[in-house]
Design brief:
Strand content: 25-35%
Largest sheet: 8 strands, mixed
Helix content: 10-25%
Number of helices: 5
CATH class: Alpha Beta
Number of strands: 10
Length: 157
């Protein structure tokens, strides 16, 4: 699979420079980081959350857990993780579990954890389980300019 079409359009519209990193098929973000030989704190993991007002996305490092209470406090919403069927419906051009962080391109508010933004570069899912997008933090910051920053994750032990 090539880049998810929505992701490709978003990156093209912002003239984003990036590389593609191919890796063996994986089903979890930590397995992806290992297979692609990238640090877990530089691999962005995107989580879809919802409440009665709709969906939001939280982008955190793959070696972190979401601190739901902190995100709910930041957003003023009572969010829960979305169900698998809903993720498939929202991210139609992506494989389940391989959603890119540009959820604003899919029409939803996106929050990005500040711990992800302190590195010189970042990796994230391209829409399938065998390719990652790699870019400098400057390019990622430009791509994610519509996302709200915050601190709502904790490093896994």
């Amino acid at each position: 699979m090539a880049l998810a079409s929505t992701l490709a359009r978003c990156m093209s519209s912002k003239n984003t420079q990036y590389d593609i990193v191919h890796h063996p098929y994986t089903l979890s973000s930590m397995a992806t980081a290992e297979a692609a030989h990238v640090p877990g704190d530089r691999l962005a993991k995107t989580l879809l959350l919802e409440d009665e007002n709709g969906y939001v996305a939280a982008v955190i490092p793959s070696n972190h857990h979401l601190h739901m209470a902190a995100l709910c406090e930041q957003t003023g919403r009572k969010l829960v993780l979305a169900h698998e069927d809903e993720i498939r419906e929202v991210f139609k051009d992506c494989d389940l579990g391989a959603i890119p962080p540009v959820a604003m391109a899919y029409g939803m508010q996106t929050y990005v954890d500040d711990s992800l933004m302190k590195h010189p570069d970042v990796y994230f899912e391209a829409g399938d389980h065998q390719e990652l997008v790699h870019m400098s933090m400057d390019q990622f910051s430009k791509l994610m300019s519509d996302a709200e920053p915050g601190h709502f994750s904790r490093r896994m032990m």
